[in-house]
Each structure stands twice: as C-alpha cells, then as structure tokens.
Amino acid sequence: MLHRMGHSRDMSERIIKTEACVAEGADWLARQDARFATALQEVGPLPLRLRKDGFAALLSAIVSQQVSVASANAIWAKMQAAKLTGPRKILWAREEDLRAVGLSRQKMRYARALAEARIDFAALRHASTEEVVARLTEVSGIGVWTAEIYAMFSLGRADVFAPGDLALQEAARLLFDLPERPSEKALRQMAADWSPWRSVAARLLWAYYHVAKDREGIR
Fold it and tell me: How would you label 130-147 residue by residue, b for 16+ Cβ within 10 Å and e otherwise?
C-alpha cells in the first residue's frame, strides 16, 4: 500500500500512491485526535490529489500565483495551445509571445528562471523532502509553500505540510477552536504531532475548511 523511497537519505519517507494510502493516514490521524475523527465524519473520504511531477507542474504553480483559479486555468490553456510549457520553449520564446498568453513581466522572469535552473526532476523523486524544498526554493519565484505543495502532490510525500497556507491556518483555527489563526511557525509546530501523515492532515484540513465555510454561509 505504502511505498518507501529507495535512495533517500531519510529512508523513513513514505510515498502516497493510492486512495488506500490516504485512508490509512486518515485513520491514523483520527485515532490520534478525536477532532480529526469528527472532521473526517463531516468531510468523508479524502481525495488523492496526485499530479505529475516535472517542469510543467512548477511552471503551472508559478502561473497560478496571485491570480484566481479561473484566470490561472485560462492562462495555462493558452500556454498549452502555444506549446509554451517546456523549458526550451520558454527560453526561446519572445517576450511578446509570453505576454500574448497572459504572463506578466514578473512571471516571465520567474518562468525563465525556472527554465534556466535545469532542475533534475527525476533526482528529486529520491531526495529527502528537505532537499526538495531547498533545491526548488533556490529558483526565483518559487517559495517554500510552492515547494511543499510540489512535494505533497507531485512527489506524493506522506509527511510534508504547508503551514504557510492561509486555508490550512484557518481550518486549524476552526477545528482546534484556537483564539486566532495560527502563524506559519505555530502551525508548523502543531503539525509535528501529525507526523508521519502530515500531508494527509493537510488534505483533511483543506476539506474541513470548505465544509466549515459552507456551513457558515461564507463564499
């Protein structure tokens, strides 16, 4: 069910491959904390949410920064149609070509920085999560949040969290009845108790966030 990494320095890092892996992690979390058990009853089975790794996954993340989901999807569709989703195409593209698909000047710079970084994406599959985050955040335009999300969903890491995520912070405030939304540092400390299933805790908190907000009538 769970696969262990073959060449990582941290041999305990596990890879989520199937919905059964997610369910196993959810069951573990529910046994650790009754509030997780309550949340699971409200949200139902958690999604797998795995996606491909590689250059396009990170380029798509850059495109999605600071714009709505609809805008990001529209820009990405234009980039796919123009075949501007690979590193060589990005490096060879003229500025007007990148502007035509909807990239801002800042995102053009980030996209080119990613292309120039020549990341060995295959090697990242066997690196520790700490190494993955360190390598990716060397690239201009990729912050810790983006790197952690990549490790979680593109590499399937079972024990990575993204405490800088505002929805996760708000969900933790609601579920654990905190007086205020926890800071990134405070939530990272809280999440230590959810190891080795922190990425499943993140899935659960995201799902709970949507349920709780719907219940409050907030859109």
Answer: ebbbebbbebebbeebbb
